[in-house]
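Field: COMPLEX_INPUT
Field: COMPONENT_COUNT = two
Field: RESIDUE_TOTAL = 728
Field: MODE = joint
Values follow.
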Amino acid sequence: MSAATSPAATSPRGVRSRIGAFSDRHRSTSVFFGVGLAAMALPLIVLLPPFNSFSGQGVWMDGFTIAGIFILLALGLNIVVGMSGLLDLGYAAFFAIGAYTYALAASPFTGIEISFWPMLLIGAVMAAVFGIMLGAPTLRLRGDYLAIVTLGFGEIVPITILNLSRYTEGPNGIGGITAPSIGDFRFPTTGNPWPYYLVMLGLIIVSMMLIYRLQDSRLGRSWMAVREDELAAAANGINTVTTKLLAFALGASTAGLAGVFLAAKLQTVTPNLFRFDVSFTVLAMVVLGGMGNIWGVAVGAFIIFMIQSVLLKQLNIFFDNVDVPILSDIDFLQYQFLLYGIALVGMMLLRPEGLFPSQRRKRELHTEEDADFGEHGDPMGASPE
Amino acid sequence: MTSSTVTAEARPNRFLVARRSGVGPYLFILALTVVMYFVLGPKQFVNALTIGAIYALVALGYTMVYGIIELINFAHGDVFMVGSFVSLFVLTNILGATGPAPDLATIVYQLVVTFALTMSVVGVLGVTIERFAYRPLRNAPRLAPLITAIGISFILQNVVQLIYGPSPINTPQVIPPSARVDMAGVSIGWINIFIIVTAISLMIGLQLFVSRTKVGRAMRSTASDREAASLMGVDINRTIAITFLIGSALAGAAGVVQGLYFGNITSALGFQSGLKAFTAAVLGGIGNITGAAIGGFMIGFVEVTAANFGFFVWAQAAVFMILIVTLVFRPSGLFGQQLGERA
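Field: COMPLEX_OUTPUT
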């Protein structure tokens, strides 16, 4: 779905470029139909072999809903890493803040009952506030400091949650979180996966539309300018600190949103859900998908989530059955993070623009070829003038 | 003290003038040390110095690499962790040590072999990482080497985890923890003395190497202006490789010491200690060797103080707060001459 709708500038003519041109002009429409079609197709695809043999449709759709959470996270991290070029290694912390905000606002633990829908916004705002508190001192410095400070923050937040048992139930986590409801209809925890699925679909569509609008706005162009050359951006009158801070806060708020949804979906939150693994997985999604490309990141997130939750498990089952001596002893799930590590290093060395590159980012990352790149990325192209 | 830093006084690409550190930081540290001695008592004071020495050794690697190529080497904490596992391998699989060695000759023999092998293996590991993961990206956007660094960190951690498993592993404590000596009425473990002396001699050695030798001068000139240095005939690639070799070898030494002192190691070590050592480097002024050493000791004090008063679980949080506070109020660190780049 991404190849068809993402801006394709590979060939000057043809259907692909027409679709590309259309989606450039009507981004919101193409996001709506692209994501919508994919979301309608997925529940049908899993009814076909071989997918139907892995698990039933309901289980698949629950999986897709969780994948949606990761797509949201990747979209948010993409604002920080992809669009603004800041490395955030503690992204899961904001995810945790969103989740615990909802957990504290709608569970028997505190006795408060606030509806899910306003909490989506409140969770996002809470995460953004923490993002600003963390970003304000750090973003004045060089970008690398942000990476290490966020790494520390990502470590501290679960530790704090773990040890502040009075307010967070510590390692047991907060359970019995209220499910969302519309009027009298309360979302079912088991059985019918559609309500959560559709809400997630809505969240993704709205976020993608907003992020596309942001990308094309003055702020989005400032992000790109700061990413490509901070000095030049500052010299051109961009307030780089505010720009970076906004990127960081907006990225954090997306994670907060995803966190609220996670808490509502699982109806229980524990500090272990938000360890460094999550930050790292989302980073791998953004890098592999193609930093800066909104569609690429979303598709990358979906693919990686499916690889880690389905493919590796199926490989285990497959090799157990066929009884290949060495391979059947390997627990492929154990290799997950090793694979991410290798993928990150390999990707940066061989194809830094990711699997689904954004055109601008690609040109930036291949600086040496820049000289003979025409305006449309045509290596033979004459100069624009 | 100004001639002893890796970083230059002025850089063409910085628009803030570098600043010399006066006596202030030294007085502050002296006062802090005295206060700590009375707060912690002699026993915990020595313990803090020992832990601090380990952090300082790791922090040196961060600071050297940052000083020369301005990269936060996220993998460095994991290089330290690999060092501790290499030393475990050398001690148990090559030397067959299982616990405290019976006599002094055995102790010396085992320690010399372990340090030599571990430091070489880990040094070569550092050079290899630089060669394959950082060098190709030296002129790429800043984000690229940072991402490979985090990738390398995960590769190292997971490879060790696949071999040794995720749970802590006991290491032979070659120097028996029970061997103690009375110093002015205070009983101090030989292991503490050994670690503090080893660490301080390695630091002095490094300081002399950087300030007195030809390679050290090449390192300083590369740090101050890579292009100008290469025009003056400095082999940049070789100099950077040597920096990684030394930094990683020191992390290897820290890894050996970690196993000897605590008696157990885990694959998560790199992540936990890496952050603390990095904080030490920032606190001392990243890019500054003396600063990193002193920062390491200060982090040791913080951690032991937190543990001493029953807040061990918050030690990590305290260290993190120090990192943030340093970045807010004195981004150049206590001894920093290279100021954080504004904008």
